[in-house]
Write a structure and sequence with these properties.
Elements (H helix, E strand, L loop, with lengths): L1 H18 L6 H28 L11 H17 L3 H10 L3 H33 L1
Helix pairs in contact: 1-2, 1-4, 1-5, 2-3, 2-5
Length: 131
Amino acid sequence: MKNLYTYIFAKAYFFCINVFKEKEFPQYFASGIITFSFVTNVIVVIEIVECVMLPAKINTYGEYHGYFALACFVIIVLYVNVKKRYEGILSRFDNFPKEKRKKLKVYSIIYILILSIGFFILGAMLRNYNI
């Protein structure tokens, strides 16, 4: 999982540099992408557990997702920027063999698609449940 997050971080970092032409702070964009994937992962699992086990409490925890996402973003940005750890992450990415990069590319696409689709489908299910 660490390799997958390393790959996603590095690709988001280089995407920010190449597409947005951001040379000074691309690690913030990459940290945001990692935060999105981590928070979405946690929220989808929590919402599925809530939906299955505690259907009466579905909307109780939903108001805290924004605070959780913001806290995760701050923690990830601080972790990445202290002692320029993002350079270590990028050097670890550069050391991946070509075969491993191809596998991680496929895994990362599948992972982000499943998370995004699961997040939006679960949101639609919860909206229909409350109506």
